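Why does this matter for the project? Reviewers at the last site visit asked to see concrete outputs rather than summary tables. In response, this paragraph embeds two records directly. Each consists of the residue sequence and, immediately after it, the corresponding structure tokens. Nothing has been edited or filtered.
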Amino acid sequence: MQQFSVPQFLQREPKIFGPFTFKEFLALVFIGALIAIGYFWFGKKNLILFLLYSIFVGGGGSFLIFGKIQGMGTIEFLGKFIDFILGSKKYLWKKKEFTQTEFLKKDSFFDESLKADKDDALNKIKKKKNIF
């Protein structure tokens, strides 16, 4: 019998205003209101400044509403990013300092019976080289 994988944890908001969800619609209305306020504030006096303002507000707002970063909405991503930056961080790992002999004793390959004496090593060198 063939098994099928069933997707879990699907999150879908209902589309209320055409292709937009309620949150997206409210955000678009807010962005439109900001652009309208900008028009009445300085749009009649300086058209180029108003166009730059509306591109900045409209583009930034659209990115915040419809953009996705790593599969999640931009606003949700920014919220998690700010929580991470401002939240407390707990580091559990602590480095323990070892001396060289303690480190060797903890090594599984270290065996005390294989340890050579200094005198044995010097005697072997003297026999082979006859230098001393």
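We now turn to the second protein, recorded in exactly the same manner.
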Amino acid sequence: MKNTYGVVGRIGTDAEVRELNNHKLLTFSMSLDRSYYDKEKKERVDRVEWVRINKFFDKTNAVNVASYLKKGTLVYVEGIPKAEAWIKEGEAVAGLSITGREIDILASAKVEAKANDDMPY
């Protein structure tokens, strides 16, 4: 059995679809917000981690799914994690990608922004 991650975050870039070995590959970046309390500084520290999401489709329905996955959308992704490393501008960089098995939309970017505009405070 493989390890799976379940994460909730916001889409950072509109989803893209590419053709790869007779399959459709849907990809997008996702921000994961985390915070912790720094005891030395006596303050809360907020951090954003970026994760690359990949999801394979056998049929053309990847384009339909991608049309709903826009920047700012809140989603739940479950899948298999993979650590990656590469060279960017002469420096070693590391990151995490998740090959998604399930993607659920929790709130669209426009709906949530409108809901926040109606708040009385």
